[in-house]
# Entry
Amino acid sequence: MGLSVWKFGGTSVGSVERIKLIARRIARERKAGRELVIVVSAMGDTTDDLLELARQVTTNPKPRELDFLLSTGELVSSALLAMALNDIGCRAISLSGYQAGILTDPIYSRARILKIDTKRLREELDRGNVVVVAGFQGMNEGMDVTTLGRGGSDTTAVALAAALNAEECRIYTDVDGVYTADPSVVLEARKLDRIGYEEMLELASYGAKVLHPRAVEIGWWFKIPIVVASSFNDNAGTLIDGGESMEVRRKATAVAHDLNVAKITIVGVPDRPGIAASIFEPLADAGISVDCIVQNASIDGITDLTFTVSRENVGEVMKIIQPIAKEIGAAKCVSDTHVGKVSLIGAGMLNTPGYAAKMFKALAREGINIELISTSEIRITCILREDKVPDAVRVFHREFELASA
Amino acid sequence: MGLSVWKFGGTSVGSVERIKLIARRIARERKAGRELVIVVSAMGDTTDDLLELARQVTTNPKPRELDFLLSTGELVSSALLAMALNDIGCRAISLSGYQAGILTDPIYSRARILKIDTKRLREELDRGNVVVVAGFQGMNEGMDVTTLGRGGSDTTAVALAAALNAEECRIYTDVDGVYTADPSVVLEARKLDRIGYEEMLELASYGAKVLHPRAVEIGWWFKIPIVVASSFNDNAGTLIDGGESMEVRRKATAVAHDLNVAKITIVGVPDRPGIAASIFEPLADAGISVDCIVQNASIDGITDLTFTVSRENVGEVMKIIQPIAKEIGAAKCVSDTHVGKVSLIGAGMLNTPGYAAKMFKALAREGINIELISTSEIRITCILREDKVPDAVRVFHREFELASA
# Structure
């Protein structure tokens, strides 16, 4: 057996009992001969508690100090897991992000990994240790602690798997794997045994919370098989890999939905070259992700420009685009935070005619209005009123027979 | 104004409000032009909480992992203090032990500082930052986190003051300074304005909790003036420095007492060379501090050997010395955990005849029995029944007129 990198999220290390539970699982696999690197998140609500402490001190903490503070949560859980492993006779050592050689760019709170110096990791593995790495963190060139932002520990795990040339990366979480839809919305949702990187990337980007898109991207780029499985049972989980053969066989794979969506419309935009850039460049500079950009067909050289962002960004977006809208002579800017997003994802779906039409017809039959449509090679997304989202998810799941493999 | 190193203990950073309070004090001094390095302990009970977490995971944690875990407490408080300072317009940066360049030996849980590389500290000071350093921790040559053990943050502060050639080191705590006796035992105890290193070292070693002896030793060696003062008021505190002139003037300075004392007696030891070494070497190897060693005069080549240790060490000590006692032909080993220690401390006291006699007479007058006597150049210590300790402290304080300066 080769090297495997396993990641356990906050719920999986949420108590001493759970830490002992996963320690036994790790020790079993180690005993069977596998080399293991374990990445852990902070215990349960630790990160939120630390954020609350910081908020009590100041509403505007320096990002460097906030990262320094938040990084301690993962240090605690990694030390405790290493103790638990040693306690049951499984040699283990905990490493902070910098001890694990994780070098990042200098952007606090959402640092990107630049490279991983695996010297210490390799040494500890060669000594027979299970290496427990504090997730979500690294160090920049100035020797300051950085955190990786949302999905940080997933990203740490897959990046370590890539740097160490691991056989696989296993993401242990509180669900059994990747489902055809959110099981709390669709009762008959089915766990997928296997899904391709590209489909998983769209699923993760369009609302499936089980794995962060950054982690999927790294896995795809470095061709690391990723398994998503439950830390509370031994079920097989979902394998995410190249899966080329599946593209032909399966068209629609899963439905993702996301309620954290706001729709922004700039009304009466003069339809001339460079306008879109003048609006979206400042948003990109402010680090705001925009998706589902739609520009209506121009009538008399005047058009409406609509796009969606996460709800927490609405205030900042409006502040940035209002002066620009004025400058380019648009009529007004309107925001709407009561929308949601439903996406049907499937490799090769758009190459097969009729999928989009079938989706729209199904929604029409249920009396659900579509406000925006956006598509990629393997995804069709509809923006709807937020209260219609669960119905739309169920309609798609049924219409495309996702419950049957 | 030059550079000053200030240390705040766990009570002083025990809540967000207190952190904000000391931030204002620091900002005031910084504004007045002083360069400042601030050393902080973990907030309130954090270290105990982390120890309890570790204890729930295992009763026998690897020392390396325990240090890794415990070091996070000081990281949290230093980040929060740096945030609070920046929030009120006082530029500040937090540094972990390793970022502050604190290199220690590899002995976990009671590491000694080997050297401090002040490059980063100097850079941050030159940028106009108040530098907040996480106390109690450093890093060994293998890049692993070590903790300094008891009195660790005091030690960090005085060592940084020495390495940075600071004008002074100020230890802010929850009392006003160093007293002639514990004010909770002696109502008329008086705060000392000034005390010499040597006297302070004896006071700290013989029960005064206000400052750790390790910190005093470093201050003495590098001639760093240390001020102990309250973090909750602006009273002047106590200056600890060379104070040579005082030796002549003042004989008895203060009374220290300690209830964490156990007495061990090896009965019927053959009085021949090498016996003491055969007993005390194994204890030293086990890292157990022994004081007040007394060997009674030999009668017919047989003697009793008595010494004191901290109460938590009794079990281990008995386990170590019982086989040795048997081997050297001693009759038995006896332990007694109901004793306490009272010490009168004063520079040059032993050079002045009559001090010891006056002490013993005063105790006799009160009907207090002395079980052991031990002396140094500037200290006379009596071991008594523990319930007699408070009385003895009061008797000495009165007898030597310590309430009057």
User: Anything to note?
Assistant: The mean pLDDT of chain B is 91.
